[in-house]
What does this fold into?
Amino acid sequence: MIFSQDRNELRQVFIDSWRKFRAGETLQPLEQLIAQAIKAHPEYHALFDDPQAAQDQDYTPEMGQSNPFLHLGLHIAVQEQIAADRPAGIRELYQKLAARSGDAHDSDHRIAECMAEALWSAQRSGSEPDEQVYLECVRKLR
It folds into this structure.
């Protein structure tokens, strides 16, 4: 369902998850993660309440706004890593960071920044993301 390479199909999963959440329909586990990520970002609610706008909008650095689908996808990836404790140790690092900050959502954001950096570096070098570099970035978060 979320493993497509088609931008519109991927975006539709987010749109459908939000619609189902708002309608009180039963959600699959991944849809629950997506809906919770959107719920935690009220700045995106209007976008997801207008499915056509959500499908059609391009997000480029030149536009000066972040891509909400990428941002939410990073949240989901962080939550999936924590649930699976993969890479090993990420769950404990997250728990410590969230306990120190008192704000789990902010901890998600901060870890997502490390993840984005690791993914960007891997893409630039044409290699797999370096889990140890990623974990070290998370360890340094305060």
